[in-house]
Each structure stands twice: as C-alpha cells, then as structure tokens.
C-alpha cells in the first residue's frame, strides 16, 4: 500500500527527478559545462550559470550528516507524526534530505552509512516512488 505524502514540487527539472525515481534510479542533474551536480533542481548552474544538464545516475550511497524528529503536524494530517528526517551526504558530494527506512533517530550516529531504496507513495498528483535511506550492510 502506498504511503500518503504531502504534495511534491513538480515542474521543469522536478518532473525529470521523479520520473527517474519511478524507475528506482537516483539521478541528479549534472552541469554539462562545468560538471558540478546541480541540486536542488535549478534552471541555471549555480557554479557557472550554464543551463544545460544531463541526468547522471548516482551510487545511492552516502552517510548521515544530521537528523531530526518532527513532532508538529505541519502537513495537516497528510503525514503521521512523529517522523524522522535525515540529511545525507551522498558519495558524489551533494546533500540530500530524506527519511530513514527501517531505523530511527535512536539508531543514528554521525557518519552512519546508508543506501537508497524507493518506497511507493502517493500525493494529490498520483502515485510516485520516494527515495528513502536504509542502513548499509
Ligand atoms: Zn556549471
């Protein structure tokens, strides 16, 4: 059963991200001019101002930099509280905000290694696959 989630951001760039997630591939836009990953999605590279990107597949591995538990119902019942959020530094060097899968804040230590997986979710735009992170084995 799909997890109900708050609405995603959709539109140019974001749609490509979610389409890759639907294929269970974690891909981010890479600037064709300077080679930097452009994340979060942006219409122009923040390093060199170019506007052409190619979507490169990442390893899906990273380590936890920070984390927190949300107890306030910011999404008006669209997401059960409390829930944990993690900040992952991906192997490729970008920071990625996500949720832990199969572990909680009591299990987390700085630098803990994690791997991406995709879970079936749904928002008002329909079903989608959300990248979350489980402990690396
Ligand atoms: Zn660039």
Secondary-structure map:
Layout: E1 3-4, H1 14-22, E2 27-31, E3 53-57, E4 61-70, E5 83-90, E6 95-98, E7 113-123, E8 126-135
Parallel strand pairs: 1-7
Antiparallel strand pairs: 2-3, 4-5, 4-7, 5-6, 7-8
Zinc ion binds at residues 31, 33-34, 36, 45, 47-48, 50.
Protein name: ChsH2 C-terminal OB-fold domain-containing protein
Pfam families: OB_ChsH2_C (PF01796)
Domain ChsH2 C-terminal OB-fold: 55-118
Q: What's the short version?
A:
This protein has 137 residues and is mostly beta strands.
Notes on the protein architecture:
With 137 residues, this protein is mostly beta strands. It has one domain. Strands 1, 4, 5, 6, 7 and 8 form a 6-stranded mixed beta sheet that branches. Strand 5 and strand 6 form a beta hairpin. The longest helix has 9 residues. It is globular, with a radius of gyration of 15 Å. The chain starts with a strand and ends with a strand. The mean pLDDT is 95. The site of zinc ion has 8 residues, from loops.
Rounded to the nearest angstrom, the distance between the terminal CA atoms is: 26 Å
| Largest sheet composition | 6 strands, mixed
Q: Using the alpha-carbon principal axes, give the shape.
A: globular
Q: What's the helix-strand series?
A: EHEEEEEEE
Q: What is Rg?
A: 15 Å
Mean pLDDT level: 95
Q: How many domains, as an integer? A: 1
> What is the helix content?
under 10%
Please, how many helices? 1
Bound molecules: zinc ion
- The SS-based structural class is mainly beta
Uncertain residue ranges: none
Number of distinct beta strands? 8
Beta-strand percent range: 35-45%
């Amino acid at each position: 059963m799909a997890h109900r989630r708050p609405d995603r951001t959709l539109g140019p760039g974001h749609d490509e991200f979610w389409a890759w997630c639907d294929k269970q591939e974690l891909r981010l836009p890479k600037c064709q001019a300077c080679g930097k990953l452009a994340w979060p999605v942006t219409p122009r590279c923040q390093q060199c101002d170019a506007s052409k990107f190619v979507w490169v597949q990442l390893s899906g591995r990273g380590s936890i930099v920070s984390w927190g538990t949300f107890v306030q119902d910011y999404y008006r019942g669209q997401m059960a509280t409390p829930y944990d959020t993690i900040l992952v530094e991906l192997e490729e060097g970008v920071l990625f905000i996500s949720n832990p899968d199969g572990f909680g804040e009591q299990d987390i230590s700085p630098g803990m290694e994690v791997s991406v997986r995709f879970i079936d979710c749904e928002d008002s735009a329909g079903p989608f696959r959300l990248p979350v992170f489980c402990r690396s084995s």
